[in-house]
From TrEMBL:
PANTHER family: TUBBY-LIKE F-BOX PROTEIN 1, TUBBY-RELATED. InterPro entries: Tubby-like_C, Tubby_C, Tubby_C_CS. It comes from Phtheirospermum japonicum. This is Tubby-like F-box protein 14. Belongs to the TUB family. It holds the Pfam family Tub. Residues 8-102 form the Tubby C-terminal domain. It comes from the Eukaryota.
Amino acid sequence: MAGGGSNEDDKSRPLVLKNKAPRWHEQFHYWCLNFRGGVTIASVKNFQLIAVVKLPPPPPQLDHDKNILLFGKVGKDMFMMDYRYPLSAFQAFAICLSSFDTKLACE
């Protein structure tokens, strides 16, 4: 059938995520990520994940400039997590939890 089967192809394609690169803030002279007010404290644990562009083209519903997972510090021993499709809450939480293991001695 015309146009059929693409959803099945999309489901079989693995989702590859990467850290979003920070941008240089000219005014303050430091690297930063835009958390749109969700993260209020600088931390080595803060990160954003985006989908990696791979060939063949990814499903149209994935916008590669949109964050799939945000994680950042908002207070002493307080962090925020924001995620969207195609991650589940469990997957997002597991990714965020894993960020603590390698960065405990960094702060």
